[in-house]
Amino acid sequence: MSERGPSRGARPGASVPATAETAANTGRVVMIASVAAIAGFLFGFDTAVINGAVAAVASNFNEGAVRLGLSVSAALLGAALGAMVAGRLADRFGRVPTMVMAAVTFLIQSFGVAFSFTVYDFTFWRIVGGIAVGAASVIAPAYIAEVAPAGLRGRLGSLQQLAIVVGIFIALLVDFAIAAAAGGATKTWLFGLPAWRCESIDDFRGHLVRALELDESSVIVLPIDYSLDVAISEQLGTETVAT
Predict the structure, then answer these.
(1) How far apart are CA 127 and CA 77, in angstroms?
(2) What domains can be seen in the chain, in order of their start residue?
(3) CB 187: neighbour CB atoms within 10 A?
(4) Which of 79, 125, 155, 237 could form a disulfide with 134 if both were Cys (CB 3.0 to 4.6 A apart)?
(5) Residues with Cβ within 8 Å of residue 216, at least 6 apart in sequence
(6) For the whole model, what pTM was predicted?
(7) Once rounded to an integer, what is the mean pLDDT over residues 40-57?
């Protein structure tokens, strides 16, 4: 036995993969976590981008301060609703399908906001966008924590917070760049940004394991985790699966 003993985070009985293979595996995990963290970018972007459109919204819809305030803050109400239902949806359908639904909702609401004819249309689509933002902001950090290996979990988990700050910063830059444009519709086209990469990330193995779809779970986890049997046993706990 080596004097140094087993490395931190190594599981008993787990084989040590080749260095090149480990590097490729780590790169894949980082890519998956980065794609999921786009949800944080959208949360920050959606929160800040409306600041540059307040004057244009007031001018286009000719509404008073009360209705204007309700319309531009409606996304926060939607975010609360989305956060409330996201966990249940993810447990039933899986993390990735839920994030895909949120991404599609982002895209749909961007068209809705862009083509709003009244303040009521605008408010409705802001709520819809908020629901998607709230759902994604709950599911994404959980997904990142679940797919990240122990040695990278803390660093990858911070991607969500970094993405939120970057989203706020980019939103303010966009506001500055098109401050003279009429309305805030131009900016809302960016709300569908994460949809094009959602199909590239794997579903969370824990959801599949809890559903006892062990074969499918093994296929999906293989590129990410080398100690499949140990990981599956830990997820199942004392539960026995009939063979």
Answers:
(1) 7
(2) 22-201 (1.20.1250.20), 204-243 (no CATH)
(3) 23
(4) 79
(5) 208
(6) 0.64
(7) 82
